Amino acid sequence: MGRAPCLSQIxxxxxxxxxxxxxxxxxxxxxxxxxPPFPAAVNPPNPAIVSQDAARPLPRWALLLLxxxxxxxxxxxRSPWKSVDVMSLGYMLELARGHTDWxxxxxxxxxxxxxxxxxxxxxxxxxxxxxxPWLDAAVAxxxxxxxxxxxxxxATWWGVVYLAxxxxxxxxxxxxxxxxxxxxxxxxxxxxxxxxxxxxxxxAQLAHETSSYLVQLACxxxxxxxxxxxxxxxxxxxxxxxxxxxxxxxxxxPGISALLGLGxxxxxxxxxxxxLPQVPMLRKRWSLTMLACTxxxxxxxxxxxxxxxxxxxxxxxxxxxxxxxRLLLWFGWPAWPLAxxxxxxxxxQLLHTPGPPHLLLPLWFVLVSLASTFTTQPADxxxxxxxxxxxxxxxxxxxxxxxxxxxxxxxFTLLFFTALALALWVVWVAMQTGVPAKPAANVARLVPGxxxxxxxxxxxxxxxxxxxxxxLVWWRAARHRAPIWKSLVLPAGGTxxxxxxxxxxxxxxxxxxxxxxxxxxxxVHALGAAPGCVQVGGVGRPQAAALLYHTQLxxxxxxxxxxxxxxxxxxxxxxxxxxxxxxxEWQLAARIVRPTDKDxxxxxxxxxxxxTADAP
Length: 616
Prior knowledge:
The chain has 24 helices and seven strands. By secondary structure, it is α/β, with parallel strands linked by helices. The protein has a five-stranded mixed beta sheet with strand order 4-3-5-7-6, with helices on one face. Helix 5 runs parallel beside helix 8 (212-229), helix 6 runs parallel beside helix 21 (489-502) and helix 8 (212-229) packs antiparallel against helix 9 (234-250). The chain is globular and about 95 Å long.
């Protein structure tokens, strides 16, 4: 597929066609079928009409500051949250301390899930070992994951840059000049894609946890970048492609790795010869390299025993279908409506063989993510992997948006995020002062036992973010704002604002509600001084990790030969489902519940018959 015809060519063709029709009518002849109104049968018209003024890039300092605020907030100043976040930290601690095998990590006798892979635990353990004398284990474990989230944003931006540089993605050339230059247009589209990704509501929490979710997201984005940048940065793109596939396999997604690798290989072969530089001469070399990377990832997965089929039955019931549809509606907002608009406006290009690579590549990533969402558990984990590609599709809708639709997005976003930010501020003031009384009472009911504190640094950061939001709204309300990315500034800014408010002034309350720290403090208090060793049995992996991190106890897995006087079990599993423990030998000493979840309780049991030894 060649470059789309410019407007002058279309107008000239149309004028010639009309003159031919008039001439035939005047002389009583039939027009020849070889004079179409425009050459749409060969090259479908490009819907992107962008001037050079509209291709102005977003100021680099503003984009970097927005990304920095989003990446760092949520990783610092908090305890590990329930449940994947703290569970991953537990395995990282055991690996860093040398208490378990690196190829088969265990946590107090509980093996790691195959769906989590090994790479996330390795990264956290290496970071803990490297910074052990200086940083707390939870802070150290988050360092590589902060870098992974930053890498996700960077790879998304550059991947869309190279996609927008493709000849089929370029805007229509004007009759008298003034259309956007290729590089400026590509950077403006990439700015829009990055803003769309930051605006996705489902990215916030899952991308700020030390878990396999974020590792899979970063590796998927590396594969996306490698396939997009291949014609322009050959060796870097192939290296990124191979690293992403291997990282996906090592982080618990070998099936997605194989699907993405083979799909990118097929798209490379379907790419038209005149669409990309050097495609005819290097297609075979690139294909063999991509196939080798896919095979290497599969072989690595098989060698480590990480192949698994995590198919769930979420699609069987109506309630599950409704939950999935609700997840699809809010998780990718506002990227998915714009992505659908892109597919509609570029439909003629999509139906034209062989199809535009700048649309087919992200579309394949989104389809793989959606297929995995409907067949595996948990669904949000799979849907997270498609957000960068969905944001890329959303960015190509920006040159085709009508003024009324752009205004609708702006007004909806302005009202929604302004109201949400005001609500967060009102409830925070109620927590601090007790006024208004009703929000204060609601907070006391939701987080019983929480004592609000006050700190100036979080307050100043929250006030600064709110001031920046007001300035952004003022800028957007001004007239004659030409950049094509303008419609996504408010969604991205509003999402970052609310996330900053939650992770600054609201962080103590969230920490109290989402961490195991209050429950573990009560447990330590109930044990008293010098409890000796403590058996742990019948608990989940998040609870075991919380015991390991939040307490300084000597913990051992429950077994019949242990002489420990104390036993900690999950209330739901006692007395029937605690292997290696005889129930009549123990008596209840305390029931320890999480303040915000009465169903999440631990039982502290004391051995009835005292033993002379107190060793594991």
